[in-house]
Amino acid sequence: MDSLEDAVVPRALYEELLRNYQQQQEEMRHLQQELERTRRQLVQQAKKLKEYGALVSEMKELRDLNRRLQDVLLLRLGSGPAIDLEKVKSECLEPEPELRSTFSEEANTSSYYPAPAPVMDKYILDNGKVHLGSGIWVDEEKWHQLQVTQGDSKYTKNLAVMIWGTDVLKNRSVTGVATKKKKDAVPKPPLSPHKLSIVRECLYDRIAQETVDETEIAQRLSKVNKYICEKIMDINKSCKNEERREAKYNLQ
Fold first, then answer.
1. Do residues 124 and 74 make contact, with C-beta atoms less than 8 angstroms apart?
2. What is the pLDDT along the chain (252 residues), one digit of tens a residue?
3. Domain residue spans in the chain?
4. Please, is 130 exposed, middle or buried when counting C-beta atoms within 10 Å of its C-beta (0-12, 13-18, 19+)?
5. Three-state SS for 143?
6. What are phi and psi of 80, to 5 degrees?
7. Is 71 exposed, middle or buried, given 0-12, 13-18 or 19+ CB atoms closer than 10 A?
8. What residues contact 225, with CB distance under 8 A and at least 6 apart?
């Protein structure tokens, strides 16, 4: 009897152990519920990631499709009687003698817009090139990249580089008039008013898609010369910095 009584667990200890066991079971149940909730969240996130990947792929396809549709629309806008593109290009490479004399007379005016010559329509695509008007062609890929450029300033500067190139810009000025900041400044040859008008026309077409306010359009177009002048100064500054680096390197 004494050994039997020693083997019996006191009631208070038994109840305490029972409560601890029940508490642990409850905690285990909560952990299982939390684990199941986490599992469901992970499954949902995996589905969202999969949907996101599909969405990204779909967006890329839509962008490609949109680009192809734009190309088709540009081709249709330029459609009409059959035109020999190579012949038109060769005829448009140089302006007529009368136009050349007009360009030289108008070289120093910032508001000059040459009369449109009877050439093919603008924004026609041909062999990886885009026609901007009056025989000016630019790379198609660069043209598409230009369309997503933010701001008139950056758009104008990038377009100027596409049309003239940095080698030409660094040795030219917008009007051909020497700067007044330097007494011994030598005037550089002016940029072609013909090509300047193309820049303005492209910027006009871009602005016209954003607003019909003629005052705003005129105000924004009036800054074209300023933007190109800033680009020329940036190019020359970059060239001078490069020359200094080379001179410093040669001295070492």
1. yes
2. 455 455 566 888 888 888 888 888 888 888 888 888 888 888 888 777 777 777 777 777 777 667 666 666 665 554 433 344 444 444 444 444 444 444 444 444 444 444 444 445 678 888 889 999 888 899 999 999 999 999 999 999 999 999 999 999 989 988 888 777 777 778 889 999 889 999 999 999 999 889 888 889 999 999 999 999 999 999 999 988 888 888 777 776
3. 10-74, 122-248
4. buried
5. helix
6. 165, -150
7. middle
8. 110, 174, 175, 196
User: What amino acid occupies position 196?
Assistant: L
For 87, the token pair is 């012949």
Closest to 222 measured CA to CA, from 164, 138, 156: 156
Please tell me the distance from the alpha carbon of residue 49 to that of residue 55, in angstroms, as a whole number: 10
- Class in CATH terms, 122-248: mainly alpha
Question: Tokens 């009368």 identify what position?
Answer: 98
Burial of 206 (0-12, 13-18, 19+ CB in 10 A): middle
Burial label, 181 (beta-carbon count in 10 A; 0-12, 13-18, 19+): exposed
Q: What pTM does this model have? A: 0.51
User: What CA–CA distance (Å, rounded) separates 131 from 114?
Assistant: 17
Q: Are 222 and 160 in contact (CB under 8 A)?
A: no
Residues, the chain:
252
Residue the block writes with tokens 């700067």: 179
Give yes or no for a contact between 191 and 174, defined as CB atoms under 8 angstroms apart. Answer: yes
